[in-house]
Amino acid sequence: MNSKLINTILTRKHNDFLKHIDDEEIKSLIDKNAIITGGAITSLLLNEDVNDFDYYFTNKEAVVKIANYFVKKFQEKTPNLSDKVKIYVEESEDRVKVIVKSVGIAKEGENNQNYQYFEQLPEEVGSNFVDSVTNLENENSENMEKAFTLNHVNANKGRPEKYRPVFMTSNAITLSEGVQLVLRFYGSPEEIHKNYDFVHCTNYWVSSEKKLYLNQPALEAILSKQLYYTGSLYPIASVIRTRKFIKRGWHINAGQYLKMCFQVGELDLKNIAVLEDQLTGVDAAYFQQIIDWLKAEKEKDATFEIKVPYLISIIDKIF
């Protein structure tokens, strides 16, 4: 697909998204500060189906206000959520997070279907859920309801509302219609791409200009379907992400893995907080169980430290 057609598709997608924002300030913030980058442009260049459109924003103020808007939207559309779960936006010096805190989780043997959330579901259910809400042609509210929560009742009758929030992590808010709002990073495209792992994902579209930008290293990687690692704050996620690219016919040489290994080696993975941050959003259903297990051990014994043989045994049990 050529750049002119891709630019048209992204512009139309963006304009359709804006039409469904009912707050003029939020609509303006998105229109003036959005950057679409990542896998969507790669898929369009290769004439492949787009899984989702990743939105980033140029400044922290926009991220905070947009995140609060969609968290509020989710709460409004999920009236029986408030008694069980607290959801709010947390702002720190360099981060914006969506915090989801469960309250009163049922004990073993109790009926907990009112608040069984995505992170607690088996991986295949999570995968089906993400597929269902990011498929541009699929608006099946029944699939969304079953996957996200076993008792999630859509407040709307008939066809579900477009661009509604359907899934949240600390790093991003996923909307229907294949839009993901990334909260973890913000700034110029160059600043955002400093945190990207593979060069082929660094083409981008700027909402304020309605313009697509393609760069040569990314295009060369796409043409050859070669994974070229440029460094990331989340090298473990990068290692795991290579699986999906290899399944799609991409190639990676041993040197790229060595780069990732060096970055992983700089992490203090025996620190539970560091390990949890590194695993956020990667096979969440299973990895969250590992984190919860380790936290429980730490609560029982303040001197508890992660030992490799112990961690291996936990991973084998869960996976």
Protein traits:
single chain; 319 residues; alpha+beta; 2 domains; 7-stranded mixed β-sheet; two-stranded antiparallel sheet; 13 helices; 9 strands; 46% helix; 14% strand
Structure report:
The chain has 319 residues and is of the alpha+beta class. The protein has helices at 3-19, 24-33, 39-45, 60-77, 123-134, 141-148, 189-193, 216-224, 235-247, 254-265, 272-279, 284-300, 308-318; strands at 34-37, 53-57, 85-91, 96-102, 165-168, 172-175, 179-186, 204-206, 211-213. The protein has 2 domains: 3-224, no CATH class; 267-318. It is built from 13 helices and 9 strands. The strands form 2 sheets. A 7-stranded mixed sheet has the order 5-6-7-2-1-8-9. A hairpin with a 3-residue loop joins strand 6 (172-175) and strand 7 (179-186). The relative contact order is 0.11. Residues 103-157 have low confidence and may be disordered.
**Low confidence ranges:** 103-157
- Compute the number of helices: 13
Q: Give me the side-by-side strand order of the main sheet.
A: 5-6-7-2-1-8-9
Proportion of residues in β-strands: 5-15%
Total DSSP E strands: 9
Oligomer state of the chains in this structure:
single chain
SS-based structural class? alpha+beta
Count of folded domains: 2
Q: What is the rounded Rg? A: 20 Å
Distance between the termini: 40 Å
Major sheet attributes: 7 strands, mixed
SSE topology string: HHEHEHEEHHEEEHEEHHHHHH
What would the principal axes of the Cα set say about the shape? Answer: globular
The overall pLDDT average reads 80
What is the percent of helical residues?
Answer: 40-55%
